[in-house]
Specification:
The chain is 30% helix and 37% strand. The protein is of the alpha+beta class and 175 residues long. It has an 8-stranded mixed beta sheet with strand order 1-2-3-4-5-6-8-7, with helices on both faces. Helix 4 packs across helix 5. The longest helix is centred in the middle third of the chain and has 15 residues. The radius of gyration is 16 Å and the shape is globular.
Length: 175
């Protein structure tokens, strides 16, 4: 378990799946946290994916649920792990009623600390909708900086939108 100032990050358990399933079926949440087209999914499919990962874990993914006061409010993960470059990507999803309350920022800060201190990564990167000022601001507060902009990169809210690539380095500066 990882403990932040406001959140706890722990491994995903089967009992967590209904909470995550609700989040996966909020199309706005899902569309902001994935580059795949948002589509409803069944609880059975979420359970089958969990079972498959439990028997054959993906070495390129480290996955946590975000817990506040005993409630699962989202998930956060390191993925696309590159051991040669000591780099990875970060992904986060939060239940919409928890947006703007600092939980995501604390979860990201906690996971970045884990990535640097425990996993020995030198760089963590992510992608975010450029117009999602709430998320971009939270990432900046953690220490992420913009590395680039993908113009008209993803379809969201009825039009193509820019996506920012942001990153944070263990020592604060690229090498």
């Amino acid at each position: 378990m990882l403990t932040g100032e406001r959140v706890t990050l722990r491994g995903v358990e089967r009992d967590d799946l209904p909470h995550l399933w609700e989040m996966y079926n909020d199309l706005e949440v899902e569309h902001r946290s994935s580059d795949a087209p948002p589509a409803p999914t069944s609880l059975a499919r979420v359970q089958a994916r969990f079972d498959a990962r439990a028997t054959e874990p993906d070495p390129n993914v480290v996955h946590f649920v975000i817990v506040v006061g005993g409630d699962v409010i989202g998930e956060v993960m390191l993925h696309s792990i590159d051991r040669y470059s000591n780099a990875c990507h970060l992904g986060i999803s939060l239940h919409r009623d928890r947006w703007g309350k600092g939980y995501g920022q604390d979860a990201v800060r906690t996971l970045v600390g884990y990535a640097f201190d425990k996993m020995n990564f030198r760089k963590v990167s992510l992608e975010v909708l450029a117009e999602d000022l709430r998320a971009v601001g939270a990432y900046r507060k953690v220490g992420f900086v913009e590395e680039g902009r993908f113009r008209s990169h993803t379809w969201h809210a009825g039009r193509y939108q820019d996506v920012l690539r942001m990153a944070i380095f263990r020592d604060g500066a690229p090498t």
